[in-house]
Design a protein that fits this description.
Layout (H helix, E strand, L loop, with lengths): L3 H5 L8 E2 L2 E2 L1 E2 L10 H13 L10 H20 L8 E4 L2 H16 L5 E5 L8 H10 L2 E5 L9 H7 L4 E7 L11 H10 L3 E5 L11 H4 L3 E5 L10 E5 L1 H6 L10 E4 L5 E3 L13 H17 L1 H20 L4 E3 L8 E5 L4 H10 L2 E2 L1 E3 L15 E4 L7 H12 L4 H6 L1
Parallel strand pairs: 3-15, 5-6, 5-7, 7-8, 8-9
Antiparallel strand pairs: 1-2, 4-10, 9-10, 11-12, 13-14, 14-17, 16-17
The structure holds pyridoxal-5'-phosphate.
The site of pyridoxal-5'-phosphate has 15 residues, from helix 4.
């Protein structure tokens, strides 16, 4: 069992106060807090073995190479990828999704092809596909969400036709929080030769994810949403697909030779995608974050978060002044205080030391589904407690007094 009180001691940020209240951080969908071990691993690189990666012929540099490549192996183990070569380091989930759209989509899609997206998607899994489809003369099709806002295999089947080449969807939506049936979608899509790109930004940090079991073609996620530092992303890809993907950035480290006539021989996957000095301290921090999460157990983290979410939602559902849009999802809780603009609500929570997110959450197509433009979002992580939820609920209860309380 997860010892949350013990775990909380690992996070220096949990001793910070906001407006004279201990911080209650419920914006983990945006980014997570970092344990001391991650901070320490980054500091150690910066203070005792700083050198560039993949370039030097001296001991410090070898140590950096070894540590950096070990992290690639750790990431592969973490998501059960067959080889470390399946793992490309990028600068964030957005960067990973851009790499698939421009590196694979642009070279494989033809005029009249179709890409399936959903209204749940984050801008990072929408805008690159808009641009690529515009450049190639393709069409975007949207899978219909069911009445709860979920994607079902049946709806995917209805959207697929002979033009469909790519399905790009989230594993867990960052607003509605539903776990999408990726394994079933991949099984069906592969029978039709369709590639499935999965945005795992909100799933990999919270639950065990096994890419071999899902059989997805690409999976994108970010280190900073799983206790690691900002500026590091991961793209998992099946090897044959990564080999067919063109790099979107060129430069030092990604080529083995080039000549004055413009001929370039690129390195093998994944080096061909990683031109320039990578975010070395970020990757090292990610390695430490994976060690931390693995030692806690992703299964236990997932179970704990589900029970904490249930605890929060059950209380929210009892409040007449609160609308919950996704009571039975797994991820973030999307809600509104009736009659209160979401950003006003977030500002009031802030005055009680509670950090939540308000707005569109970078998923602006969801307006097509939700009967509201913006929502509040409380996104939990394994270091949140029932006591924190109780305090959050107390503020929600202020209900109609909300604005009075806000403006005094
Ligand atoms: C579902 C989803 N996809 C992609 C992203 C983009 O991640 P990043 O900002 O780390 O590139 C986010 C970030 O909020 C997200 O929630």
């Amino acid at each position: 069992m997860l010892d949350v009180e013990q775990v909380r001691k690992d996070f220096p940020m949990l001793s910070v106060s906001m407006h004279d209240h201990p911080l209650i951080y419920l914006d983990n969908g945006a980014t997570t807090l970092k344990p001391q071990s991650v901070i320490q691993a980054i500091c150690e690189y910066l203070s005792s073995y700083s050198a560039n990666a993949h370039r030097g012929d001296y001991d410090l540099s070898h140590r950096v190479d070894e540590t950096f490549e070990n992290v690639r192996q750790k990431v592969a183990n973490f998501i059960h990828a067959p080889k470390k070569e399946n793992i490309v380091f990028t600068y964030g989930a957005s960067d990973s999704l851009n790499l698939v759209a421009y590196g694979y989509g642009l070279t494989h899609l033809q005029e009249d092809d179709e890409i399936i997206l959903s209204f749940q998607e984050h801008a990072s899994n929408t805008l690159p596909w808009f641009d690529v489809s515009r450049q190639k003369g393709c069409r975007i099709q949207y899978v219909t969400l069911d009445q709860d806002g979920q994607i079902t295999l049946e709806h995917i089947k209805e959207t697929i036709n002979e033009h469909t080449k790519i399905i790009a969807i989230s594993h867990i939506s960052n607003v509605l929080g539903y776990l999408n049936p990726i394994k079933e979608i991949c099984q069906y899509a592969h029978q039709k030769g369709i590639i499935v790109v999965v945005d795992g930004a909100q799933s990999v940090p919270h639950m065990p994810v096994d890419v071999e079991e899902l059989d997805c073609d690409f999976l994108a996620f970010s280190a900073h949403k799983m206790c690691g530092p900002t500026g590091v992303g991961i793209l998992y890809g099946k090897l044959n697909l990564l080999e067919e993907t063109s790099p979107t950035r060129l430069g030092g480290g990604s080529n083995s030779r080039y000549y004055k006539d413009g001929q370039v021989t690129l390195k093998k996957v994944p080096a061909k995608f990683e031109a320039g000095t990578p975010n070395i301290e970020g990757v090292i921090g990610l390695g430490s974050a994976i060690d931390y999460l693995t030692q806690l157990s992703m299964k236990e983290i997932h179970e704990y978060e589900l029970s904490l979410r249930r605890y929060a939602v059950d209380q929210l559902l009892q409040l007449d002044n609160v609308i919950v849009y996704n009571p039975d999802a797994q991820g973030p809780i999307a809600f509104n205080i009736k009659g209160v603009f979401s950003q006003d609500a977030a500002s009031l929570f802030n005055t009680y030391g509670i950090a939540i997110r308000a707005g569109h959450h970078c998923a602006k197509l969801l307006d097509n589904y939700l009967e509201t433009n913006t929502t509040c979002r409380a996104s939990l992580y394994f270091y949140n407690t029932r006591e924190e939820i109780d305090q959050f609920i107390e503020i929600c209860k202020k209900g109609d007094d909300f604005l009075d309380a806000f403006f005094g």
